[in-house]
Amino acid sequence: MLKQLRLTNIKSTLSLATRGCIASQYIPIASTATIWQNGNSLPTFKSKNSPITAISFRCYSLKGIGTNSLGDDKFEQTIPTSHSIKSFKSSNYTSDASIEEESNKGNPQKLLNPKKVTLKKLKWHKKPTNPARIKAPTFPYNSFQLYTKFEFSKIKEDSLDCSQFLSNQEIFKIISANWKLMAEAEKLEFEQKFKLLREQFITELHEWWDNVDKNLVQLENLRRSKVNKIRKHKGLNASSMLVDPRAPKRPASAIAMFAKDLKKLNNPDTPFRYIDFSKSVIAKWKELPESEKEIYRYKFKDSFKLYKEVLKKFK
């Protein structure tokens, strides 16, 4: 893109400079008076159908003493339009839509949509803001986990003081062995401590859910669902979602109700392991007649309607 056309006075020579090259040159007759001395200003250009129209400028040189003719010599030079000149910068120049269209004819790049340009600018200037991960307060599930929480830090510190490093697996083995050797009275003390602390924890958890931003909870659950897909592919356990403990729980499915009824029978032939028990439940569900299956399905539909009503009130 060309720089602004300018007139320079170099060693008593008036010249028009473009792109570092001299386009035209005029050597005055006797002495030179520059355009600025004669009150002229730099030319300004405007075009509608071409990047630059044919322009003309006048340079005046005063006649020296001793010449036959008096007055000013007039010099006129016309600069034709050049197709290679596409645009230039000038303080008095305002861009024209037709100039941009013609200048883009020689450019293989297409004109960008102004909406796309603004969107790109917004993306460039947008600062990446990663919201901080929120984590709900947790508490041990039973008295043994509470005992493990208290004892783990003690054994870890003792092992460091004795310069005998113990791994986490070895520490857990020591804790479980101490718990088995513990008297029942001591276990009851931990059970009472666990109940008191659990009540305090539940009140703190409810306060946390009342004050937390629900939008951040949704973002965290979305992140965990994506992570769980990767964990499932790797064969790892899925991380739990953030759910308000006061929220109504979704009712069990028809086959889950059937499995609960099978457990109530206390049949000695039912397998003890969870995997084997689930396999036997699926096999018996397939053998069950459709009339009995419909009873469990109707139960599920009724309980699901109640669940929806309670959920609306909770929200």
TrEMBL record:
Kindly indicate whether the keyword Coiled coil belongs to this entry.
no
Q: Which GO terms describe its molecular function?
A: DNA binding
Organism of derivation? Smittium simulii
Name recorded for this polypeptide: HMG box domain-containing protein
Q: Which UniProt keywords apply?
A: DNA-binding, Nucleus
Which CDD domains does the record cross-reference, listed alphabetically?
Answer: HMG-box_SF
Q: What InterPro entries does its record include?
A: HMG_box_dom, HMG_box_dom_sf, HMGB
Q: Looking at the keywords, is Ribonucleoprotein present? A: no
What Pfam family is a match, any one?
HMG_box_2
Where does the record place the HMG box domain?
137-209, 248-315
Which positions does the record tag as DNA-binding?
137-209, 248-315
Tell me a GO cellular component.
nucleus
